[in-house]
Fold:
Amino acid sequence: MGRIARSPRKRPTLPRRMTLAAAALILGGGGLAAVNFYASASEGGAGGRGPSGHDMSQMRMLSTIDCPDVGNSLSTVPDAAKPRVDRQLADLDTQITDAYTEFADNKDRIQRDPGLADRMVLAPLKAKRTDSIGQIADATGQPDLNGKGLAACSMRAADAPAPGDQGSDPRGDRTGVQDDGQGGDQASGQGDGQAVAAASAASASGLSRRDFVDIRSVRPNVAAPAPRRGASTGTFTSDCGRNQNGKRNPDNVIVAPGVSNGAHHMHDYVGNQATDAFSSDGDLARGGTSCRNQGDRSTYYWPVVRVLDQGNDVDAKADGGGKDKNLGKIRTPVQATITFVGSPVGKVTAMPKFLRIITGDAKAFTNGNANANASWSCTGFENRQLKDKYPLCPQGSNVVRTFKFQSCWDGKNTDSANHRTHVAFADKRGACPAGFKAIPQLVQRIVYDVPAKAGAFAVDSFPEQLHKPVTDHGDFIDVFSDQLMGKAVNCINTGRSCA
Structure:
């Protein structure tokens, strides 16, 4: 594909770009990255020189808090200890949220005196984390947790890579973005006024225009393994709506059961209508469902998408919303498709009831992209998928989020200590790891009508994750009836399309 033609309109000079960025900050941009919004795309780049001769790389501002993910370090959790561990893990998330709020509320003081970041934010946070990690270590019988350096957090800039992040697709595929030299603005046709408005919205959320890319500048990058003899090529589709009834909450019953606002961001739900932080398996089994086939009482949920430059929603002063730095108008999907597909190398087996799967990583911005898995694209361009960028779609095209869940199960557990090791992805040939069984793969495709402007929309996130697209994720709890799961498996294994 050819390169996008450059706009004949001249780009603003560096001083003017900095003025626009400052205007964004005055207009309400609360993120510490706000004044660096345009400077980060300067001609000099990292190492270029500003008008006063300063190294542009030194203009990078500390923007967020980076803490080790304790949950990912847990190998096993005894059943008796699980409630206590879940509580402490949720407390760790709340501690980071509170520390980030302290950081953001004092950004001007910290900018003038960087030493305040340690005294006001990092040192108190480390003390709290040390206590929580110690309680987890005691509960799990893993004293080595205390020696892993998990308590100490650090500050980082929004555009600094996470440890171990190679800047490419975490599943090994490059995003294929072609740099047109315009930093994303020119392709979307924004004038200066639009740029200021977009900058204001984006800086308020911690975003940069480099988090957005015109989908037409992305090379096709989707490849699937060819089905082998004996593959399960059928599909089963469950019509569960698109959350027209507005079921939302900031809980996460998988990661933080029994904890209100355990996610610190708002989720859209389809399927099971009884789902919140306190739902037991029995509650889910008895719950109503938005799915057309009442045999599917499964829970499907994902972070909401918000339009950032059209005012705030009803949760602007609530947990998960404005209290957790998630502002803007929640946008209901125009379409949400739930499909289960088979394995290219063989037959699939039934999922166990109450199997829990999380795909993607809500903390990928600070954790690195090893577990990032959601994909972003546009209708008409879905052979081009992005992991760490939001797409700008041409006129007549809508934004698409795709979640392809893990399709291999260990054959024993419905969950695991880190909510990951009981399931796995198939390899590039489509085969499961040794000891794992192929199960129907859940594929969710969610479509949105949002403005095609850099900085105009974003997913909800933990506050310190700055709404980056790489943090997108999906959650699923299987509550199929045995009869319906049997039907789905049979359809998939016999190559039929069923609903």
In short: The radius of gyration is 23 Å. The longest strand covers residues 441-448. The chain has two domains: 62-157, 218-498. Residues 1-60, 167-201 have pLDDT under 50 and may be disordered.
